[in-house]
């Protein structure tokens, strides 16, 4: 089966794992958050991987960089939302620490992609 270029990106691979963790985590949120925080977290986490995929298809380094920056911004949105989730006691301190660790690793890889395009 053909593999698209984005599928080879470490950032995209890590983002898939991150999305899965967000979905699993939010499945335990209060039902009244289904259309609030749960929806926001899920959409923002998917946006991370989607922007990485879209950016990889762009022909210019400027366009690629823009989409990778969008991906980073979506990651920051998720980090903010998991902090709020912790404040609201929807997630445990341990879950917050784990997700922040995953987010930190992902941010470094995405920033590496952006930096690699600055020199182009």
From TrEMBL:
SUPFAM superfamilies for this protein: IVS-encoded protein-like
Domain of life: Bacteria
NCBIfam families: four helix bundle protein (TIGR02436)
Protein name as it appears in the record: Four helix bundle protein
Protein's organism: Carboxylicivirga marina
């Amino acid at each position: 089966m053909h593999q698209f270029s984005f599928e080879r990106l470490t950032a995209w691979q890590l983002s898939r794992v991150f999305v899965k963790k967000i979905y699993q985590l939010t499945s335990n949120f209060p039902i009244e958050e289904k259309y609030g925080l749960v929806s926001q977290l899920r959409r923002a986490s998917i946006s991370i991987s989607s922007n990485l995929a879209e950016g990889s298809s762009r022909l210019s380094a400027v366009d690629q960089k823009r989409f990778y920056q969008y991906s980073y911004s979506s990651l920051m949105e998720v980090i903010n939302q998991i902090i709020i989730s912790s404040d609201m006691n929807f997630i445990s301190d341990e879950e917050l620490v784990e997700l922040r660790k995953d987010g930190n690793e992902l941010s470094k890889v995405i920033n590496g992609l952006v930096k690699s395009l600055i020199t182009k």
